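Example record

One chain of 302 residues, shown exactly as stored in the release files.
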Amino acid sequence: MALGLASAVGPAPAAAAPACPGAAPARLVGVVPGAALEGLTVDAGGRLYTTDLISGRVYRLNGPGAPAVPIARVPGGTGAGALAWTPGGTLLVGYGADPRVIVGDALRHASIGRLDVNSLAFRPWVTGLSAANGMDVSARGNVYATNDFGNLIGRVTPGGAVNAAWGSLPSANGAVLGRSDGWLYVSRTFVNPGVSRISTANPRVVQSLLGVGAPSTPDGLTLDSRERPIVPFNATGEIVRITSPGRYCVLATGLPTSSVVSYGRGDRGFSAGRLYRAGFDGRIYEIPGGFDPGATAAFPGR
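Predicted structure tokens for this chain:
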């Protein structure tokens, strides 16, 4: 698989998509009434965190079926976006995912805050990014943030130095680092829809892993234990797994407005190996077909 992905240096058209082995109907495991969910991650204790674009709140669910409890709200009260963990266990919250993103990279108004999930103290950290619709953090503490309405991919050092134009890929969305942090995987949502990966050593090296039709709108992705991207197709309601360059299978259907997927973490609650989806419908589903005992939510050094 790794050798196959490494050879994908140009746009790869999607083949006909069969159902993945073990594909099964999604199971509803959480609801945030009235919310449009954007970020999704899980901590080491199996507690799930998600963000609401509308209210700017960060919610926590202690386990499947548990109520969603608001634990923080971003400055300005709207546009909460991606979530990611620092090496020290602080939860980073992207914000600024509001109507200003329509102008693309012009404003660079987006910010990242730091949330202590134990004390629930939230404090702004950096600003000046194009957006933070997707976000992940390397083992060295470097933060990568994407903008699906623009071209720029930002990078923030552990000390807080912002490079809003570290990389460029039209409509990059979602962000997840592969093993050893050598590649940043992103979806391409509106422009040339599909999935790419970007070299963190040289962001000018971009490999396309999948191209799909315009109605699909790929959104916030994750990786399984074999480093295969798992991607929600927002408009068509499919959750898919890329099996080789240009090919994918379907893990679940009937989930329109899916915005992000993540594996669980730990041995209880939203546990490791189980795949979860959140969406603009305010609902969180488990995707049973994506079960992978070796897969876990993104966190530094995983």
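Notes: Helices lie at 2-6.
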